Each structure stands twice: as C-alpha cells, then as structure tokens.
Amino acid sequence: MMKKYDFIIVGAGILGLAHAYHALKKGKTVLMLEKNDKAMGASVRNFGQIVPSGFGCKWQSFGRDSLEIYQQIQSEYDIQVKREGSVYLASNEEELQLLTELQQINQSNDYPSKLLTAEECLAIYPMIHKNYCVAGLQFEQELKAEPMLTISLLTKYLVHILGMEIRYNTFITDIYSNDQAAIAFDSLGEKYIGEHLVLCTGDDFQTLYPWIYKKVDLELVKLQMLELIPQESFIRGNILTGWTIRRYESFQECPSFKDIKEKEDAQSLQRMYGIHLLFKQNIDGSVIVGDSHEYGKPDKISGLKLHESSDFINEFILHHASLILHLDMSVRRSWIGCYSQVRHDEIFNHRIDSRVRIVTGIGGKGMTASFGWAKAHFEELNP
Ligand SMILES: Cc1cc2nc3c(=O)[nH]c(=O)nc-3n(C[C@H](O)[C@H](O)[C@H](O)COP(=O)(O)OP(=O)(O)OC[C@H]3O[C@@H](n4cnc5c(N)ncnc54)[C@H](O)[C@@H]3O)c2cc1C
Q1: Judging by DSSP bridges, how do beta strands 218-228 and 191-199 pair with one another?
Q2: pLDDT in tens, 250-266
Q3: Cα–Cα distance between 275 and 247 in angstroms, integer?
Q4: Burial of 107: CB neighbours in 10 Å, binned 0-12, 13-18, 19+
Q5: Which of 14, 23, 265, 314 places its Cα 20 to 30 Å from the Cα of 271?
Q6: What is the C-alpha separation between 182 and 353, in angstroms, rounded?
C-alpha cells in the first residue's frame, strides 16, 4: 500500500521549507516534491538579507519570528546564517529624517535600533565613502544568509534532523482531492498521497490551477543582481542605502514619507527601474550588489525578457555603488532573479478545498518572513 503523508509540499523554495519545518515540528510526516534537481527559484537567487526592519508593522512581526526560528535552527545545525545586523545609510537630511521617524516607530514596537552618526558608521563600516553618509540606523539583531548554501543546508536539516522525505526531479502536473486524501501526480504519472497538500510553487502559474491564477492580480518582478570579486575588507551584515530608505515598506509608515517622495524626479533612472542599492558580503569575501525592479504580467512574460539583463542597468548600479562604498567593483558574475507578488495584497494564500492550499506571491519578503508567516499559517490551519 502507498504511504500516505500528513503533508505533501510542492516546491523546495523558502516558503515550502518553512511550511515543512512547522509541520515536522508538530510531529507530522512530510514529503516535499521539487521539479528540479534542487531548488532553482528566487530562494537561491536573492541577497540573503533577513531584514524585518524593511517591513511595515504587520510583516515585521513575521520577520521577527523568522529571526528566532533561523537562530534556533542555526544553534542545532549549521545553515550559514549569521547575526551581523543591518544598517541603513542616509545620504542627506531627508533620508535622515526618515531614519529618525522609523526609529521612533520601532521604539513603540519594541524593535531595537540605534541611530549612528556618520563617524560611528565609518568606524563599523570603514569602506563607506565619507561624503556619502550623513547617518545610519542600525538593527543589530538582524541576520544574513548565503541563499544558495542556506537553502541547501536547511533542506538537509529538515531531512536529516527532522525526518522530512524529499523527491527531486519530480514535476507535479496534476492534483486531485476528495474526502479521503489529496493526490499529486508527476509528469511521469507517479502519484503521491497526502492528508494535506500545500503548493509553494513560486512564479509558476501555468502548471497547477492556472484558471485560479487568471483571476488574481499577480505580477512577476525581474531583478538584476551583481556579484563583485572577493574583497580584502570584511563587510558586516547587510548594508542598505538612501534609495532603499526611499523605497522600503517600513519607511512608508513614516509621517514625512509622502512629502519626501513627492519631491523626487519620477523620471529618474532609479525611479523608472526601481533601483536601490544593497550590499551583502558572502562567506568567500565576494559581495552581492543590487538591484533593479521591472514588473510584468504572467500572461505577457516575454515582455519582461527574463533571459537577458540590460547592461545600462548593471552599469548604473555599479556606478552608484562605487559612490557609496570603496570596493573593488570588478564583477565576478551577474544574474536575474524573479519573484511573484500580488498587486493589491501581501501574499496569495488560497484554499482550493479542505485539503489543498496554494501559498505563493510573497514578493520580496520571502527570505525574511517565510518562517514567521508559515508559523501563523499553521496555527490557522490547525492540522
Ligand atoms: C534577486 C532577488 C533578491 C531578493 N532578496 C531578498 C532578500 O535579501 N531578503 C528577502 O527576505 N527576500 C528576498 N527576495 C525575495 C525571496 O527570494 C522570495 O520571496 C522567496 O525566495 C520566494 O520563495 P518561494 O518559495 O515562494 O519561491 P521559489 O524560491 O521560487 O520556490 C519555488 C520552487 O517551486 C518549484 N516548483 C514550481 N512548480 C513546481 C511544480 N509544479 N512541481 C514541483 N516543483 C515546482 C520550483 O522549482 C522552485 O524551486 C529576493 C528575491 C529575488 C529574486
């Protein structure tokens, strides 16, 4: 007789792993099914910045739960997550105003942060250009990960320590459910039986339940990313800069945000291509720098040109990055990442029936918020 699992999870990205973690912690049996020979989506193409400070109040709390969970796992099994903190660097008085307001919001939320003078920023991050930085806001408790490695190690932790089963090269093309079970069929006709099925299939809207996605205001976001060659200097944690302060959701809750945004030139390249500058050093000393944001509808995917990057965007990113940090700007590799999001919602959480759920469209929040969000989701599912 075929084994019946408590949970079948389709997609081995961070949202799938986070759901598997909470199910396993509740003593459930879990089978994870991934169409490639390892996770290949946004979860292995990102910065690895685990930064709840970038979110508005509601999602910050999911991010804060994730910080705890990542550290709990790290204490049991090395997943290459490090607590080196984050800093937002203001380049002028307007951005400093937003940092000051965000700090007040965080104070009332009990989320510790520290305003740093330019000199204090330079003491911690000596590679900052003196004429860029007027102040910084530091979140010492935030984490950084090595996306490709962390996802692989997290998967190993779930398999070897918590007992998850996983099948790679298993492309789920059909789902059937009735009052007995949920059944997933792969492209070779194999079937997998579960009590519950959670689909965390990232930006694939064509294979499973495409008619459902047609009714949702989903979009795909293309990001251009660069990796600089290994650097001699050590860069602590996550560095986020002025254009990030002018973009991230947390700052949108600041009283001055609207007025400051209205003064910006909407035709500037950074506004038109959603460019802001983030830095994170990898364990081998290389540095990820990015990124840009271009938006497209899933049924007009060719317009996004996901197969190629625009040189002018990469050159613009590198030029402005070189005005912020003294680094060797030689590029070792570049890539494109893509995530899905819902235009007027925070995530796509859809119940097909009592056994089957779709969870996707977490946008740019996944590495930070998935563990915390999945924890709350499990409480709601109450399996
Ligand atoms: C360039 C970039 C930078 C980012 N930086 C950050 C950051 O620093 N911090 C942060 O918090 N977030 C960041 N994000 C966002 C984060 O990476 C995403 O929110 C998150 O990875 C989404 O995870 P997911 O599991 O939903 O999707 P994915 O990672 O795309 O995983 C989906 C998986 O499902 C599999 N799959 C799909 N269909 C099937 C099927 N039918 N059968 C079997 N398997 C299937 C895919 O192969 C894939 O492995 C960034 C994203 C990008 C693209």
Answers
A1: unpaired
A2: 999 999 999 999 999 99
A3: 9
A4: exposed
A5: 14
A6: 10
Residue 201 and residue 66 in one domain: yes
Reported as type and span, the H/E element at residue 261 is helix 257-262
pLDDT tens sequence across 167-225: 999 999 999 999 999 999 999 999 999 999 999 999 999 999 999 999 999 999 999 99
74 token code pair: 């790290």
Tokens 């976001």 correspond to what residue?
A: 221
- Tell me the whole-structure pTM to 2 decimals: 0.97
Kind and range of the H or E run holding 96: helix 93-108
CA of 40 to the centre of ligand 1 (A): 8
Q: Going by CA atoms, what residue is nearest to atom 26 of ligand 1?
A: 202
**Same-domain check for residues 77 and 116:** no
Amino acid at 376: A
Are 340 and 351 in the same domain? no
Ligand 1 pocket member 171 (CB < 6 A)? yes
* Whether the CB of 17 sits within 6 Å of ligand 1: no
Do both 184 and 212 map to the same domain? Answer: yes
Ligand 1 centroid to Cα of residue 13, in Å, is 5
Domain that holds residue 34: 1-84+143-216+345-383
Residue 316 Cα to ligand 1 midpoint, Å, equals 26
**Phi and psi at residue 109, to the nearest 5°:** -95, 5
Atom of ligand 1 nearest to the CA of 41: 30
